[in-house]
Every structure is written in structure tokens, then in C-alpha cells.
Amino acid sequence: MTSLDLWEEGARLEAILGNSTRPAVPTYSFGVPRSKGEAVRQGEATAEDERRRLGIGFGTIADVADIIANQSIWTSASDLPNETSGLFVAHRDVGLAILVNARHARGRRRFSYAHEYAHALLDRERSIDLSRAQNRDDPIEVRANAFAASFLMPKGGISAILRQIDKGGPSRLQGELFSSASDDAVPVEVRPVPGTQRLTYQDAAYIAHHFGVSYPAAVFRLQNLSHITQKEAASLLAQSNTGNSYLHTLGLLDDINGEDGQNANRRELKLQLTRLAIEAYRREEISRGRVMEIARKLDLSGDTLLRLAEAARVPQG
């Protein structure tokens, strides 16, 4: 059973329910960016606006696929060619859908989900967007990457982490202190101990794990926010294996580099369709046989799904 088949099944269930089960996903209109710089600004601004709309603030996103699935978008992972990270589809019959590469590590898939979500928010007039290494310099792709980086690693969240680990501050702090003796201000300058503000592979790995992204994604985000220079970023990238070894030693590497298996790849899509099927059965819009058929398509136990659907009909109170 392909993802398209499941999207079509979901669309049929939504039609039965009057399309009243999911909210409308917003649209952000900028037009095609004229430069990479403009693309980055548009992507970051959209990510900040979307975080505010969703009430996320500067916090980490535990499950980006779940957030997207709750925005009227069919969401799943499937085996795609390795050079393809994901795709976004706007289809007349099934609506909006996102597919990411199940073969990629968990942290990269999270970034791909956010990237494709940007296309859903910004590029809906394009019926399909295929994200591949070959088109990464396309302003539309640059904008989606900027959105993903900002959505998963917000500027305020990065700053908070750096303050927490006492890193990334200025080389000197200048200001004035009020003096009770003179009833005036006294200029002061505080210099951190040399070298204490330098970000290391350990800090980049910590940030990567905190936000659930790959080590390189964390390094590039630090560079884009001017917390490190291009030269420092290159040095940290050269230590990618060391950063991953650090996380592996602490038992944390699988959180971002682990594989989930095919069953987990369609977890969100299964959740979306089972919710619709149970609700349709509760309203007596579909039969027991239809519930069993949907269960087969989702590789679920028909008896179990039917039992759950029957339970939804039990009067409350």
C-alpha cells in the first residue's frame, strides 16, 4: 500500500465526515525570492511567525511530524532515492501531503519534515516540490532550508542554550554601575577569561541533540546566527565524527541518527487515518467491514481497530 493510496483513503474519510476534522493550514505569500539573502529572510520570518501562531515560542519541538500532521497535511516517510530528502504535494483530490526519505537518519528526517512544511506554507501554488541535492541552490529551496533551520532551532532558543552553558558571549562587556558614594555612574569593563567563550565540538553536539537535528545542521545554524565564524564552522564540521562519538558515548546518538523502521515511518499517517476511521464509525458513516478494510491497508489488526471503534460508540457519563 503506497502513501498515495493512504492519502486517498484519508481524503475519502474526510469527505464522509464533511471535512470538519482538521483545521485549515495557513498561507504565507512572499512570491519567489529574488536572491538567496531575500530567501533566507523570508524563510526565517515565516518560521518565527509560524512558531508564534502555534504557540511554541522558543522551545524545542519534540515531534515535528506530529505538529505538521495536525495542520491538515498528510505526513509520512517512505523509501526514496538517497539524493531525495523529501517532497511536498498539493493535489486536487487528496489535499496537501508531505513525504520524507525513510532511509535518512532521524535528525535529517526532522529537518526534511520542516523543509517540506515550508513548501506547504509558502509554495502551495506549485503542485509538487521535490527536494534534492541538485536543486539546493534554488531560491525556493534556500528559503525552505532557512525556514527549517529557524523553525527547529529558533534564534531565541539558541541564545538561551548558549547562556545556559555560558558560551558565545562577547569578548568584553562594557557598561556603567551606579555609585552610592558619588551619586553617579562608574564605567566598568569585564573581560571573560581568554578562551572561555569559544564554542567546541561538544557544544555543537549538545545543541544538535537538544534541538533534535544533525551535528552539521547545528554548526551551520550557529554560523548563520554569527555565533561562530566561517573558519570556526569549518573546524567544527571537520570534527563531526568526534561530535557524534561524544553523543554515542553518552547514549544519545540514536536520538538523532537512529533508524525507526518502516512501521514507525508511517506512524503519523496511521494516526491520522485511524482517528478518521474511528470517528466515521462512531457516527455510523462506515460499516464494520470498512473498518476492517482500512485496518488491512494500515497493516493493523482488524479486530483491534474494530474494538477501538466500538469503544468510541459507548455513551459517556
Descriptive overview:
By secondary structure, this protein is α+β, with helices and mostly antiparallel strands. Helix content is 52%, strand content 13%. The chain is built from 15 helices and 6 strands. It has helices at 3-16, 36-54, 64-69, 106-122, 139-152, 155-164, 201-211, 215-224, 230-237, 240-249, 254-257, 262-265, 267-282, 288-297, 302-312, and strands at 73-78, 84-91, 95-101, 128-132, 173-179, 184-190. Strands 1-3-2-4 form a 4-stranded mixed sheet, sandwiched between helices. Strands 5-6 form a two-stranded antiparallel sheet. Helix 8 (215-224) packs antiparallel against helix 9. The longest helix is centred in the N-terminal third of the chain and has 19 residues, at 36-54. It is elongated, with a radius of gyration of 24 Å. The mean pLDDT is 86.
Quick synopsis:
This protein has 317 residues and is α+β, with helices and mostly antiparallel strands. The chain contains 15 helices and six strands.
Task: Choose one word for the global shape.
Answer: elongated
Number of strands: 6
Poorly predicted spans: none
What is the end-to-end distance? Answer: 39 Å
Largest beta-sheet characterization: 4 strands, mixed
Strand content: 5-15%
What is the oligomeric state here? single chain
Instruction: Indicate the mean pLDDT.
Output: 86
